[in-house]
């Protein structure tokens, strides 16, 4: 009898433990990911090969259950974020993932543009419309549009940039009506919307969306980037370096394994990212010898400063290099001696 009770109790405990792993808290856990070589991902037709490698760095992120929450609380390089700090209000997981993938597309386009222009190569863009990255609650778009929708026309007009779209709408007044043509799941839809002020103290009107240009580069030579399911804009700098290295003669890697992070603007400015210390850990574990970190013009709490703290803590021999622009990174590498 006691044996049956004991076995039954064990089964109950087992079921409770297994079941609790599927009960998620309103938090996300982030932890160091990996450093991934870019040469297999980026392909410039006829591009030069490198002796070393440029690598993007990633962070792993997932919803927290009670066990991962507890582990993160006592781990140096795992962080907890409330859902509201990761996802926008009323944003689903699918919409969040779509937003991250579209941000990656924007990052790649900026990287291609900067690399080709710096290399003196031809580049133009085919413009397709604007991607909806988010919808503001209480604004006209809320009832119609979703993250990932592609707006291709407004009042039968096509635009050559998202800024043209913004400027067109900004010229209108509250309660003016516009016609939106958009694509969702490869199907075309039309909707009418009345413009609304963003708040009672503002004269600025709109439909209430955040947006990103939907455009594709046309380059000579042709380029292909297979970023798969990698999301977010933080690989911009490293994409730019890899593309430029393939476009130009010589080898900027000089035989080293070079990791880094930072967004890339259209004018070559490197911007800050989140999770810099976790990326230092990821790069160290992947054998990187050099790491480029956004310097943020020397701010006291810059990505570069945070990177130095993590590098010292994990006792890595990896060289941490501050950069504000693509040219900073290129100049550093041009002066770097070849690895023996």
Give the DSSP E fraction (strand runs of 2 or more residues).
25-35%
CATH architectural name of the largest domain: 2-Layer Sandwich
Number of beta-strand segments: 17
| Shape summary | globular
Descriptive overview:
The chain is of the alpha+beta class and 340 residues long. The chain folds into two domains: 32-67 and 106-121 and 221-335, Ribosomal Protein S5, domain 2; 124-216, Roll (Pdz3 Domain), CATH 2.30.42. Helices cover 32% and strands 31% of the residues. The chain has helices at residues 2-20, 66-73, 83-86, 93-118, 162-170, 236-247, 276-285, 303-314, 326-335, and strands spanning 24-37, 42-44, 53-65, 79-82, 122-135, 150-154, 177-184, 187-194, 196-197, 205-206, 209-220, 223-225, 257-260, 263-264, 270-271, 290-294, 319-323. Strands 4-1-3-13-16-17 form a six-stranded mixed beta sheet, sandwiched between helices. A five-stranded antiparallel beta sheet has the order 8-7-6-5-11. Strands 2-12 form a two-stranded antiparallel sheet. β16, α8 and β17 form a beta-alpha-beta unit.
Give structural attributes:
five-stranded antiparallel beta sheet, single chain, 340 residues, Pdz3 Domain, Ribosomal Protein S5, domain 2, six-stranded mixed beta sheet, alpha+beta
What is the fold's blueprint, element by element?
Blueprint: H1 2-20, E1 24-37, E2 42-44, E3 53-65, H2 66-73, E4 79-82, H3 83-86, H4 93-118, E5 122-135, E6 150-154, H5 162-170, E7 177-184, E8 187-194, E9 196-197, E10 205-206, E11 209-220, E12 223-225, H6 236-247, E13 257-260, E14 263-264, E15 270-271, H7 276-285, E16 290-294, H8 303-314, E17 319-323, H9 326-335
Parallel strand pairs: 3-13, 13-16, 16-17
Antiparallel strand pairs: 1-3, 1-4, 2-12, 5-6, 5-11, 6-7, 7-8, 9-10, 14-15
Helix pairs in contact: 4-6, 7-8
Pfam family, one: PDZ_2
Transmembrane segments: 5-25
Keywords: Hydrolase, Membrane, Protease, Serine protease, Transmembrane, Transmembrane helix
